[in-house]
Design goal:
The chain folds into two domains: 79 residues, RimM (Elongation Factor Tu (Ef-tu), domain 3), CATH 2.40.30.60; 63 residues, PRC-barrel domain (SH3 type barrels, Roll), CATH 2.30.30.240. It is 8% helix and 41% strand. Strands 3-4-5-2-1-6 form a six-stranded antiparallel sheet. 20% of the residues are buried.
């Protein structure tokens, strides 16, 4: 399974360097000189890597000028990845396909992806009626991730999912 570790951003300078939107917790290892990263444009081999503040800049073999670097803008950088061996961390491919259910076992849908949002990650859940919902991937709302059991347990606030926890608007007649 391939895992996205970054996305190529804008060109930086005239010699083929690009800024990278990092999607890995170990960029120094993933972007080490000589590392081979897969992409839709074929393999890219890291020729140079540097960090400036919180930003990473890379150069690739065969990309020697600004024009070639700009042509890579938006390209996802991928690596082969096994399943995560950490207790509280999962790769997107481990989450996709998991059954989404409430604490009482009621199935509300299926996890179809993971979105990386500015505030936190969000599970993309296709509800049983076909609605796609973003569920904040925080312990308060997703208390259980059971990859081996094929499920995630959700504790959504009212209104997050269609028909789950919504207030009863049937008022008694007077």
């Amino acid at each position: 399974m391939q895992l996205a570790v970054g996305t190529v951003g804008r060109a930086h300078g005239l010699r083929g360097e690009v800024a990278v939107d990092v999607r890995t917790d170990d960029p120094a290892d993933r972007f080490a000189v000589g590392s081979r990263l897969d992409s839709e444009r074929g393999p890219l081999v890291v020729a140079g890597a540097r960090r400036q503040g919180q930003r990473w800049y890379l150069t690739f073999e065969g990309v020697g000028d600004r024009t070639a670097a700009e042509a890579l803008r938006g390209v996802e950088l991928l690596v082969e990845a096994a399943d995560s061996d950490e207790d509280d961390a999962w790769y997107p491919h481990e989450l996709a396909g998991l059954r989404a259910e409430l604490a009482d076992g009621t199935v509300v849908g299926e996890v179809v992806g993971l979105e990386h949002l500015p505030a936190q990650d969000a599970l993309v859940v296709r509800e049983t009626d076909g609605t796609r919902s973003l569920v904040p991937f925080v312990r308060a709302i997703v208390p259980t991730v059971d990859v081996a059991g094929g499920r995630v347990v959700l504790d959504p606030p009212a209104g997050l999912l269609a028909g789950v926890g919504e207030p009863d608007l049937d008022l008694p007649e007077e």
